[in-house]
Design goal:
There is one protein chain. This protein is α/β, with parallel strands linked by helices and 246 residues long. Helix 1 links the parallel strand 1 and strand 2. The protein is globular.
Length: 246
């Protein structure tokens, strides 16, 4: 494993150091003392590469990434997995806003809470099905304009009294599936979706995903109580057609 010390290193220089190591054939890198450097993992394409990050990476972590695995041993800022195509991001803490924007494939596992507009425009591409699992709670506009993929919100790792999800959940959603491990009042939901109980096929789909989430984060949670979950799916393929076209 190659060690890179990011203390005091400008983000452009740090990213070039990481790329240089990968070009030389390095497959596993540990980056220490990360303090807000942006774009780590951005555009990388080697599926055999693993990058361990100690510290808090900056915005657009793994933007446009296509293959590697990033393991963040702390919190992450906004824009994690922006337009990500494949690979995996594991965050052992919280993450900010706009996580998985336009995500077309791969997996994002976040142990604790996330901010606003998480899963916005998440879609999938050809045979790719992006997957995101969040162990804690989410802010407003969760799953906004979602067009594909699977998002799971567990509410299992944070102990507070706020709702599991904020206002306008799934607003404009027209594809994909959202699973939430708690009842959500209709007033929090976009008008384009309806709630359903899980079926056996949903349980079969979620079981390996949740097992991988727990294993990657090295945590133990009782999250297989599928009778608690609700499923949100869209009931319109063109939720705003009449607003923009007359």
């Amino acid at each position: 494993m190659k060690l890179i010390n990011a203390k005091g290193v400008y983000y452009k220089q740090l990213n070039e150091m990481i790329r240089a190591e990968i070009r030389s054939g390095t497959k596993e890198i540990k980056v220490t003392n990360v303090v807000g450097q942006r774009y780590i993992g951005g555009g990388l394409e080697d599926g055999d590469v693993k990058i361990h990050i100690e510290g808090v990476p900056g915005e657009d972590l793994a933007a446009f990434m296509d293959g590697p695995t990033l393991n963040v041993r702390n919190n992450a800022q906004d824009g994690v997995g922006n337009t990500m195509n494949s690979g995996k991001i594991i965050v052992h803490g919280m993450a900010g806003d706009v996580i998985g924007y336009g995500m077309r494939g791969g997996k994002i596992y976040i142990r604790d809470d996330v901010g606003y507009r998480v899963g916005i425009h998440m879609k999938g591409y050809l045979d790719k099905v992006p997957v995101m699992v969040i162990g804690g709670r989410a802010g407003d506009f969760f799953g906004e304009y979602m067009a594909g993929g699977i998002v799971v919100l567990l509410g299992a790792t944070t102990n507070n009294s706020k709702p599991i999800v904020g206002d306008y959940c799934a607003a404009g959603m027209h594809g994909g599936t959202i699973y939430i491990r708690e009842e959500v009042e209709d007033r929090f939901l976009g008008k384009e979706v309806k709630k359903f109980s899980l079926e056996k096929k949903d349980e079969k789909l979620l079981t390996p995903i949740l097992n991988e989430f727990l294993s990657d984060l090295d945590i133990s949670l009782d999250i297989f109580d599928f009778s608690r979950y609700i499923k949100l799916i869209p009931v319109s393929s063109r939720p705003y057609g009449r607003m923009y076209v007359y």
